[in-house]
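Postdoc handover notes: sequence design on the structure in folder B. Input tokens:
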């Protein structure tokens, strides 16, 4: 992380500092989110039925979603900026592959992946930097590969920063985020907006897309 942009280094350090608490918070979190699980299951089903292949979760944290993708029948591995998060993921799921890395420069060959999941991991990316992330996702996906995004939605407002509990994050209007992906070469297949639960602050957005 020595030569990383400042926001990447700050994000990694912030997640390192709260990794154990964060792991306790997110473990089992999918159990009470049937709509979110349905989007992930749809992604997994599409990847399997269109030929399968390796799937990466970028920004995997302690690995719970990577393990869920594995349980859905995918050949999944995880990557995260935070070395401490990766240590926790490896300890919790020793049968899965995890490595430290950044979404802006994935250590993957062109067209290597059948699918890519970014589950609330682009939320810390400054808006002006996000188009380059979609370009990188496009690069590593095979033709016809699929992308699933989870993010905080801005409920009709513009892109806005907010005080995420770990470090600064951004809420996006779903149409604007979908347009950025389209400009990078993705075709939208489905979207889902979910209103916040009682203990959540913001609406949740989900986009399922295909390369090309």
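Designed sequence:
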């Amino acid at each position: 992380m020595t030569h990383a942009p400042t926001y990447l280094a700050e994000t990694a350090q912030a997640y390192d500092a709260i990794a154990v608490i964060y792991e306790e918070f997110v473990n089992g979190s999918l159990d009470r989110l049937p709509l979110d699980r349905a989007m992930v299951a749809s992604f997994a089903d599409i990847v399997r039925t269109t030929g399968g292949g390796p799937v990466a979760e970028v920004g995997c944290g302690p690995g719970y979603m990577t393990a869920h993708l594995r349980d859905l029948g995918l050949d999944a591995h995880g990557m995260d900026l935070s070395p401490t998060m990766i240590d926790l993921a490896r300890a919790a799921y020793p049968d899965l592959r995890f490595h430290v890395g950044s979404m802006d420069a994935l250590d993957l060959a062109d067209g290597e992946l059948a699918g890519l999941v970014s589950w609330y991991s682009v939320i810390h990316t400054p808006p002006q930097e996000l188009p380059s992330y979609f370009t990188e996702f496009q690069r590593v996906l095979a033709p016809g590969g699929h992308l699933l995004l989870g993010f905080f939605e801005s409920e009709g407002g513009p892109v806005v920063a907010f005080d995420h509990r770990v470090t600064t994050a951004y809420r996006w209007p779903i149409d604007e985020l979908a347009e950025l992906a389209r400009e990078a070469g993705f075709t939208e297949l489905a979207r889902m907006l979910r209103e916040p639960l009682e203990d959540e602050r913001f609406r949740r957005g989900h986009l399922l897309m295909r390369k090309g």
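Context for whoever picks this up: The chain has a mean pLDDT of 94. Don't rerun without checking with the PI first.
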